Amino acid sequence: MFKSKSEDAEYKRLSEGEDFESLENEPLQKNKRLTLLEKSSRDFSIIHTAVLLIEATLCALLITGFIALHQAKQALRQETSLDGLSRLASYNTSIKFQNGSEHMADSRDADDYWRDLLGSGGVISLDTEWARNQGLRPSAQSPTDSSQSIYQVDVFHALHCLNSIRQNLMSKTPPPWDEAHMLHCLDYVRSQLLCHPDLTLVTTNDLEEFVLDETHRCRDYGAVVEWVHRHRWIEFPEWLRTKSEKNHGHEAIHNHTMA
Ligand SMILES: *[C@@H]1O[C@H](CO)[C@@H](O)[C@H](O)[C@H]1NC(C)=O
Ligand SMILES: *[C@@H]1O[C@H](CO)[C@@H](O)[C@H](O)[C@H]1NC(C)=O
Ligand SMILES: *[C@@H]1O[C@H](CO)[C@@H](O)[C@H](O)[C@H]1NC(C)=O
To answer: What family does the database annotate (predicted)?
Structure first.
């Protein structure tokens, strides 16, 4: 490591061709040697720093990539979230409409049909935190579980409305005709039709009748019902019963949830 003065001098003379005068100047030589050592160690540390920088950049890129991937995954999950509700929006089913006049009749079978169709009224109970994370608007807190909020899947409102109209039209002993409610219901069905216009192109044989047996592209209603059943507010019928008992049997004017 430590070279003698003469070795040092010779090295200097050979390599740098300096004259004897400068060789006599010992402190200067030492300084020069130190400068050389410093320079090479500085070179080394520049390379070292560069390598570290590259490594750090690669790490940062990798981490950024992972974060981006995670966010993309999360966005995808949000899109198909609410336990697959958004997937139910796809029109993945083909249906030929049947002549279902008997569903509208004033009969026990028709009543049973509508009871099954309306089920729990599409009233569901969702974890409030979860609903908020899905971007849903806040809704009333569940009276039976403070961590849950209550929503209704809207098609059940429209179905309820249709059934109310049916009951008013068909019943031999009709309930007191609530005209305001019926008009609301008719208009609600109108709004639903304009919201989801069926674009099926139907054919005609006689230029008068256009409602032949075309195949319609539909959402899978059975899958919707399954989803609703999974999330239904189980205590809802019980809650309704208790409420109407408290009201001494007075029916609410707008009862959109049940048949
Ligand atoms: C339509 O899509 C829903 C949601 O992915 C699915 O549950 C259902 O089985 C599908 N129906 C058909 C007929 O493919
Ligand atoms: C539908 O079926 C009923 C009997 O259930 C029948 O009276 C009616 O004429 C049918 N309507 C059409 C358009 O086929
Ligand atoms: C809604 O209607 C159903 C069936 O007609 C009834 O059992 C229920 O008590 C009603 N709910 C309210 C809040 O009036």
So the answer is: Belongs to the ustYa family.
Rounded distance from Cα 112 to ligand 2 centre (Å): 20
Reduced to 3 states (helix: H, G, I; strand: E, B; else coil), residue 137 is coil
Point out the ligand nearest to the CA of residue 100: 2
Q: In one letter, which amino acid is 56?
A: A
Atom of ligand 2 nearest to the CA of 102: 5
Q: Is the CB of 98 under 6 A from ligand 2?
A: no
Angle value at C-alpha 230, between 227 and 236, nearest 5 degrees = 115
d(CA 30, CA 36): 10
For the CA of 252, the nearest atom of ligand 3: 14
Please give the C-alpha separations between residue 206 and each of 77, 158, 203, 210, in angstroms, as whole numbers: 50, 33, 10, 8
Rounded CA separation 17/23 (Å): 10
CA–centroid distance, residue 116 to ligand 1 (Å): 21
Do 200 and 95 contact (CB within 8 A), yes or no? Answer: no
Q: How far is the CA of 181 from the centre of ligand 3 (A)?
A: 14
pLDDT digits (tens, 9 = 90+) for 21-37: 544 555 556 666 666 66
* Higher pLDDT pick, 17 / 166: 166
Ligand 1 pocket: which of 82, 83, 90, 92 to mutate (most atoms within 8 A of CB): 92
Query: Can you tell me the distance from the alpha carbon of 157 to that of 31, in angstroms, rounded to the nearest whole number?
Result: 92
What local confidence, expressed as pLDDT, does residue 243 receive?
Answer: 87
- Give the predicted TM-score (pTM) of the model: 0.65
Cα three-residue angle 53-57-60, rounded to 5 degrees:
140
Q: What is the pLDDT of residue 219?
A: 96
244 in contact with ligand 3, CB cutoff 6 A: yes
